[in-house]
Design goal:
Length: 535
C-alpha cells in the first residue's frame, strides 16, 4: 500500500507523481480513517498469529477467538528484498514473535501462514523433557533435604501453586518472586530459577546470634582503631568503647610507624588503654606494632580475618567520620567544628554526650550555653544503660539467628573464597583461636585464620599437596600461621613440619623459609638420606 510513495524517497529515483501515487495516497487515507476495532488481550484464550510476506514488506496480526488484538507491519530493506520467498515468509514469523513478544513469550501460540513449505520445516514435534535435578551439582541426599524443607515451607508451597496454575490470584507472600515468574519452574518437588534451585529458609544459613564486646568499667580502657580513605587521603580513627568518643588523624603514610606515632599522642593525652582492637591489616601485624604493644603495656587483639563485624565499634566510627567529612565538604565548612558538635551531642542510650562520658564535662562550642553547663559532673549508671541498650539490640537481632555447630581440630572444611566465582578451598581445622575464629590448614601447606561463618564442614578427605617449593602469595592479607600443637588431637603439629598433614603418619621433609617468604622443601627423592651441611 505504501510502496509507491516509498519509492519516491529513494535517492536514485526521479520524483514523478503519477496516477498510481494518487491511488496509493487515497488508499492510505481511507485506511487511517477506518481503523479496525481491536479486542483486549486475554491470557486464558488461545492465541493465533497470522503473518505474511510480500516483495517489499512484512505483515502480522495477533488474533484471539477470531478477533484482532494487534497489528504490525514493516518494509523490507534492500538486502531483505533479495531473500528467497521461503526466507521472507520465515522472516515474517520471526518479526511477528519479536513484535508481539509480551503476548507470546512462554505461551503456546499457533502460527498461520500461506506458505506450505514452512509447515514441513516448522512441524510440531514432541520435546524431550529434561529433569533439572538430574543435572544439579547438589548431591541426591541434599536434594532430598531441600525437597522436604520445601514441603514444610508454606510460602514455597504457595509459590509452587502459582507456578502451576498462574499468577492471577497470587498471595502477598509470593510477590517478591513475581518479577522473575517466567524463570521459575518446579522439578521433583524443588523450585528452580533457571538452573539454580531456590533454597527454603529452613535450609539457608541463618545469621549467628550476636556476641557483643564487653563494656569496659572506665573510659579509654578499651579502644578500637581502623584506617580508612576519604577523598584520596588516608585517615586513622581511634574510638573509645565506653564513651563512643573518637579521634581522627590524617595519615601521610600508611605505615606502622605513622600509626604508632598517632596512637602515642592519644595515649599521652587520655592515658594508655588496656586493650586495643584492630583488624588484620599488615600495619597492625608488623613487628614494630608488636614491640609498641609490649613497651606500652597494652593487649592487642585482632578481629577474625575478613569479618569486619567483630571490630564493629571502629567500623561504625569510620562510617560516622565519613558522613561528617562528606557533609562538611559539600557545605564548605570546617569539619573540626562538626566533630566538636558530635562530641557534645547527647547519645540516646545514655543521655550523655561522648565528651561527658570521657572527661566528665561538656566542652565549649559555638552554641550559646550557660556557664554552669561546663562544670565537671560524673555521669551516673552509664555502664548499666549501655548494657541495657546492647541487650535490646541483641534481642531483636537474635530473633532469626541460629548458632552454627562448633568445629573441632581435625575437621575437614571448605573455606569461602574472596570472590564468588572461585572454588571453595579444602582445609582442615588446626585449632580454635577465639570465639568463632579458627586456624585452618590449607592443602598448599599454609594456615589461615577464618571466622566460623566462612567455613563449611565436609565429609571429604583432606589431601595435602606435597610440593618441593611453595610460593606464598603476597596478595593474601590473612595472617599466615604455622600449625601449632593442638591438645585435642593425637597428632602433634610442629612449626618446622609444614608439609605434614594432621592425619598423616609419614614424617615431613625438612623445610627452610627464605627472607623473601619463599618456603623451600627438600625433594622427596632424598627422604631416605641424612644430609648434612659441611660448609
Amino acid at each position: 500500500m505504501c510502496e509507491p510513495l516509498r519509492q519516491l524517497t529513494r535517492k536514485d529515483v526521479v520524483f514523478n507523481w503519477t496516477h498510481e501515487h494518487d491511488e496509493a495516497f487515497d488508499t492510505i487515507k481511507q485506511s487511517v480513517c477506518n481503523a479496525p476495532v481491536l479486542s483486549y488481550y486475554d491470557s486464558k484464550l488461545e492465541t493465533v498469529i497470522q503473518c505474511d510476506s510480500s516483495e517489499s514488506g512484512l505483515g502480522a496480526t495477533l488474533l484471539q477467538e477470531g478477533q484482532p488484538v494487534a497489528y504490525a507491519s514493516r518494509a523490507l530493506t534492500q538486502t531483505e528484498q533479495n531473500y528467497a520467498q521461503i526466507e521472507k515468509e520465515l522472516l515474517a514469523v520471526v518479526f511477528a514473535f519479536k513484535k508481539f513478544h509480551h503476548f507470546t513469550y512462554g505461551r503456546r501460540v499457533f502460527v498461520e501462514s500461506d506458505h506450505k513449505p514452512l509447515e514441513i520445516i516448522n512441524y510440531e514435534k514432541e520435546i524431550e523433557g529434561t529433569c533439572l535435578s538430574d543435572y544439579s551439582a547438589v548431591s541426591s541426599e541434599r536434594q532430598t533435604r531441600i525437597k522436604q524443607a520445601t514441603l514444610e515451607d508454606q510460602t514455597l508451597l504457595k509459590l509452587i501453586e502459582c507456578i502451576k496454575n498462574g499468577w492471577n490470584k497470587a498471595p502477598r507472600e509470593v510477590k517478591p518472586y513475581y518479577s522473575v515468574r517466567d524463570e521459575l519452574s518446579v522439578d521433583n518437588g524443588i523450585i528452580f530459577r533457571g538452573d539454580r534451585c531456590i533454597i527454603p529458609k529452613k535450609r539457608k544459613q541463618s545469621k549467628e546470634p550476636l556476641i557483643s564486646h564487653s563494656i569496659p568499667d572506665k573510659p579509654w580502657a578499651k579502644v578500637g582503631t581502623d584506617v580508612f580513605t576519604f577523598d584520596g587521603n588516608d585517615y586513622l580513627v581511634t574510638v573509645d568503647y565506653f564513651s563512643n568518643f573518637f579521634e581522627i588523624d590524617r595519615l601521610y603514610e600508611t605505615t606502622s610507624k605513622e600509626i604508632v606515632a598517632k596512637l602515642k599522642q592519644h595515649f599521652a593525652r587520655h592515658g594508655i588503654s588496656e586493650r586495643v582492637i584492630s583488624d588484620n591489616a599488615s600495619v597492625y601485624k608488623s613487628e614494630k606494632f608488636k614491640s609498641f604493644s609490649r613497651r606500652w603495656d597494652f593487649t592487642h587483639v585482632t578481629s577474625s580475618a575478613r569479618y569486619p563485624q567483630s571490630n564493629g565499634k571502629a567500623e561504625n566510627a569510620v562510617k560516622t567520620a565519613k558522613r561528617i567529612m562528606k557533609k562538611e565538604k559539600h557545605s564548605h565548612t570546617d569539619p573540626m567544628l562538626a566533630l566538636l558538635n558530635f562530641r557534645n551531642t547527647s547519645q540516646q542510650a545514655t543521655s550523655y554526650s561522648p565528651a561527658q562520658q570521657l572527661i566528665n564535662r561538656k566542652t565549649r562550642t559555638l552554641l550559646p550555653e550557660r556557664s554552669n553547663q561546663f562544670q565537671p559532673s560524673i555521669p551516673s549508671n552509664v555502664k548499666a544503660k549501655l548494657q541495657k541498650s546492647k541487650d535490646r539490640q541483641a534481642y531483636y537481632y537474635n530473633r532469626n539467628a541460629k548458632p552454627l555447630h562448633c568445629l573441632r581440630a581435625g575437621d575437614t572444611v571448605r573455606i569461602q573464597p574472596n570472590e564468588r566465582n572461585k572454588t571453595w578451598e579444602k582445609g582442615i581445622v588446626v585449632e580454635k583461636r577465639q570465639t568463632r575464629s579458627y586456624n585452618v590448614l590449607r592443602e598448599n601447606c599454609t594456615v589461615v585464620n577464618r571466622n566460623r561463618k566462612h567455613l563449611r564442614r565436609t565429609s571429604e578427605l583432606f589431601n595435602e599437596q606435597r610440593e618441593e617449593t611453595v610460593d606464598i602469595d603476597p596478595k593474601i592479607n590473612d595472617q599466615e600461621l604455622l600449625p601449632q600443637r593442638d591438645s585435642r588431637t593425637e597428632t602433634e603439629l610442629k612449626p618446622q613440619t609444614i608439609g605434614q598433614s594432621v592425619n598423616s603418619e609419614t614424617p615431613a621433609t625438612p623445610v627452610t623459609q627464605r627472607r623473601s617468604g619463599r618456603i623451600v622443601r627438600m625433594p622427596l627423592k632424598y627422604k631416605d638420606y641424612h644430609l648434612t651441611d659441611k660448609r
